[in-house]
Amino acid sequence: MKQVFAALLSGLAFALMVPGVALAQDGPLRIEITEGVIEPLPYAVPDFVAESAGAQQLAQQIARVVADDLTGTGLFREVPREAHISQITSFGSPVQFADWKAINAQALVTGAVSEEGGRVVVKFRVWDVFAGTELGQGMQFAGTPEGWRRMAHKVADQVYSRITGESGYFDSRVVFVSESGPKDQRAKRLAVMDYDGANVQYLTGSNALVLAPRFSEDGQRVLYTSYETGMPRVHVLEVGTVQSRILQGQDGVMSFAPRFAPNGQTVVYSLTQGSNTDIWAMDIASGGTRQLTSAPSIETAPSYSPDGSQIVFESDRSGTQQLYVMSASGGEARRISFGQGRYSTPVWSPRGDMIAFTKQNAGRFHIGVMRTDGSEERLLTASFLDEGPTWAPNGRVIMFARETQGAQGSSSLYTVDISGRNLKRVRTPEGASDPSWGPLQ
Amino acid sequence: MHTGHYISGAAHGLLILWALFGGMFRGDPPEMEVADVSVISEAQFAAMMQPQLAPPTVDEPAALPQPEPETALPDTPVEDTQPVTQPEPAEPEVVEPDPVPEPVLPEPEPQVADDLPQPPTPEAVPDVQAPDVALRPTPRPAPRVAPEAVPEPAPEADVAPEVQDTVEQSDTAEPSEAEEQQATAPEAATTEIVTEAEEPARAPTASVRPQVRPNRPPQTQTQTAAAPAAPPEPEPEADAAAADATAAAIAGALEEALSGATTGSAEGPPLTQGERDGFRIAVQDCWVVDVGSQAANVTVTVGFDMDRDGRVVGSSLRMLAAEGGSGTAVETAFQAARRAILRCQGDGYSLPVEKYDQWRNVEMTFNPESMRVR
Prior knowledge:
The structure holds two protein chains of two kinds. Chain A is mainly beta. Chain A is about 15% helix and about 40% strand. In chain A, the strands form seven sheets. In chain A, strands 2, 3, 4, 5, 6, 7 and 8 form a seven-stranded mixed β-sheet that branches. In chain A, α2 (about 55-70) packs across α4. The longest helix of chain A is centred in the N-terminal third of the chain and has 22 residues, at about 1-25. Chain B has a domain at about 275-370: Fusion Protein Consisting Of Minor Coat Protein, Glycine Rich Linker, Tola, And A His Tag, Chain: A, Domain 2 (2-Layer Sandwich). Chain B has six helices and six strands. In chain B, the strands form two sheets. Chain B has a three-stranded antiparallel β-sheet with strand order 5-4-6. Chain B has a two-stranded parallel sheet with strand order 2-3. Classes of the chains: A mainly beta, B alpha+beta. At the A-B interface, α1, β1, α3, β6 and β8 of A face β1, α3, α4, α5 and α6 of B. Chain A: It is found in: Periplasm. Chain A: InterPro entries: 6-blade_b-propeller_TolB-like, Tol-Pal_TolB, TolB_N, WD40. Chain A: This is Tol-Pal system protein TolB. Chain A: Keywords: Cell cycle, Cell division, Periplasm, Signal.
């Protein structure tokens, strides 16, 4: 009887606890969000404050270049200045966050420019509007008035880095082949420009055909292929002095498709002997060469991984052009591309996680990316002719050449985000092809 | 002797008689077939078998796989792996001299400011309830690039954080008390990426099925505890000590059940699924994911407190956990989550005040896995 009584009471106690369990919530409210939006982040860049008499125009120009850099990424959207409620009249005055919050600016860039004695000083701050705090600390750059664009790019790099957490790519240069004249008589010469197409400077004349320039890791040298001697030969050019020399001078042998190793001391290139093309490596200091592939097929377009341990290249050993990865010291290669069509011009990402390539399939050309093992292939573009991808220093953007169809077709440079968004043309004074993106300066 | 034995004996006897006299063990032996054979050598055997080893012939050979049709390729300036004829010397440019400018660009001297003055903390300004100036419409970034720019469409609504209808003063109608305002709407955004190389879907691949009506949530038995059964009277011979122990256990259970706060659990009815979804959607509309960044690999959990008006206590925002990515990517992911929570709260999230205890403390997990670029 005693047990029966205890069981009844226990049941009663359990019944009393049930409503409590139903009413109570164990801990805080937990919500999981798996869908967001893909849109540019709104920000505001009011004109920088001119802190000296002659710096008014410079202050406006620098602010515009900063805004163009950020907006050009496709990751940011500038809130028009006409919508600004607050005006920044002093670099040190407090920021009225409510005014910027009201126009939905999530980030705010304020700055000031002063010029004195041929020396320009640019200082800036980045603000998180909704948090009401500063992102990082204020910085300043100093330089000559002629270098104001570089200082603006440096400011934009800092803003980009503080908001995205990744390094920028605005203060970088691109070496490319500038093209002029009709398609059948096109003159080509090497040129270098800012990443956005500004400040174009020519490195070679147009008396010899030049192809495939490639920046070194430090941006001080450029490898390229020239027909100056009648045969394609690899040249190396010192950007500082604009002096070039033939790197591989063996008579009767064609060498092309050069690219620096990450250490800058080794060059890998293709060499044709008879009807066979293989990949070779050369030590620049000693001139010693080493053959990396020995297949009876055509191996070309080698590109090092960022750590210098592997090389990706294209080969037709399987019957069609496909991509292969091998050790930097040569040896057996592993095929990584298995899709339909032909793959060419692979380039390893500076991040090391992806490989960009040109793909030809069904009469169309594509720029695409894949993992280094060949998985997760994605095509980013499609046109009559897209080719020659090159990575931005932060591995976020790809620049390539696009040629239009027809006898009057011309080649231009384009950039595209690795997500496939924000495809846009880079303005150059003439036609352009074969871009190679240099490092962040 | 059973009858069965007689029957069995008779049956066996009949079977033996049939086997002996029925002709079962008689009969003519079958005739043997005799064939002539001849001895041949191994070479002769191989010669005889040779025609059988040949592959069977077919009337028509199978069609060979055709190679991939070569499309007319344009003249490409890529490295040609075939022998290349010597290019014709280019005509020297007469008008345009070979410009070889100074390649050395001016090097600014970047330096970190040592003594940039820290700006004073701005005065507390009450939050603006509605923007005074609606933004001018800006073209939405096109996912595809057209060869020619198209004219900008006429704006239908300005960009503003919140949706509001157009209010105009009419000449004929009675003057409205509402202040004249312009229609605004949040800027459109997308949750998926279509690259130039992909064809957008032009038709649904499957028909949409009507959604199943959600099941009603089970009704809570809130009255169970209201009328507890009367305890039976204890028997006189019951052990007093055992009865005290049982009574103490029951009292403890009752106290625990009736005071949920002592365990840290929130009181009151839980949020309905609709209320939770509304909260989730309100935040996710402001969660901007940079799908190509390293931060897109990070799942971050953010904890924060809220006041009764549904506003986030800004100082309570903190990162509770993060998974995937480097330290910088984690920090960027946290900042994006924090901005989403703060930006979309407006005048406060729409949550039932009577259930405040349920959403006083929130843990929100931002998982971008389904949006990541693959």
